[in-house]
Amino acid sequence: MARLSRARGIVLRTQDHAETDRIVVLLTPNFGRLDLLAKGARRLDRPSGAALDVLNLVDVIFYLRSGLALLRAADLAGTFPNVRGDLDRLGCALAGVRWALRLVPRDAADPDSYKLLLGFLSALERGGPPKQLYLAYILGILSATGHRPHLDGCVRCGGESDLTWSPELGGLLCMGCGGEGEVLTPRLVHTLRGLARLPLSAAGKLRAEEGDLRAIEGLLQRFGEVQLSR
Ligand SMILES: [Zn+2]
């Protein structure tokens, strides 16, 4: 039987459905990823349609039922105008949303992932460094959803010298244990650990080199491709 419920959530995705409907995907604290059917949301006379844009914070009332939950009402609770107005920030925010879509399971409470995404968007809105916040957020949401990369020394021997990156083994791997490719500089490893360990607000203040941040983004991208396709 359908049950009327409420939630606050961040819009992760919307897609057209049938003639006038949309499917709206939210990240919420109590329902994790929540997919909602918004009947008639594409009709111009439905004001709730505009509230459902990606990145908006919305309060929704919906029917939980077998199959797709049915949206009854949506109220805009917040937008991130500074994020939308800056291509760099917007790009990082949308990439962050894609990680949430990949990582957060449907219909299971996940307050940590919600808090991380909200904290990330809020920090971007306040003017924090986009790339750095983005990487700290990815490391946070990987950890919150059970995919934390291994960063405490080599994954096999725990050693600290000649560390390389092994997406297959889930993190740092030393040359002596079969690591391949480029050896990561101690400075890069230090930055990576700092971004993983610190809360978002502090991670935004970490001193980091632009080149290291770009390299770390590449490492996490490969990690995601290998670890999340299993
Ligand atoms: Zn080793």
How would you explain this protein's 3D organization?
This protein is 39% helix and 24% strand. It has 2 domains: 3-78, Nucleic acid-binding proteins (OB fold (Dihydrolipoamide Acetyltransferase, E2P), Beta Barrel); 81-227, de novo design (two linked rop proteins) (Up-down Bundle), CATH 1.20.1440.120. By secondary structure, it is an alpha+beta fold. It starts with a strand and ends with a helix. Helix 3 packs parallel to helix 5 and helix 6 crosses helix 8 (210-227). Zinc ion binds at residues 154, 156-157, 159, 174, 176-177.
Bound molecules: zinc ion
What sequence of helices (H) and strands (E) makes up the elements?
A: EEEHEEHHHHEEHHH
Distance N to C terminus? 35 Å
| Spatial shape | elongated
Residues in helices, as a percent range: 25-40%
**CATH H-level name of the largest domain... which superfamily?**
Recombination protein O, C-terminal domain
- Widest β-sheet, arrangement of strands: 1-2-3-5-4
- CATH class call of the largest domain: Mainly Alpha
Would you give the CATH topology of the largest domain?
de novo design (two linked rop proteins)
Largest sheet report: 5 strands, mixed, barrel
Please report the number of helical segments.
8
| Strand element count | 7
The secondary structure category is: alpha+beta
Task: Map the helices and strands.
Blueprint: E1 3-17, E2 21-28, E3 32-38, H1 48-51, E4 57-64, E5 69-78, H2 81-84, H3 87-103, H4 111-125, H5 130-144, E6 163-166, E7 171-174, H6 186-197, H7 200-203, H8 210-227
Helix pairs in contact: 3-4, 3-5, 4-5, 5-8, 6-8
The protein binds zinc ion.
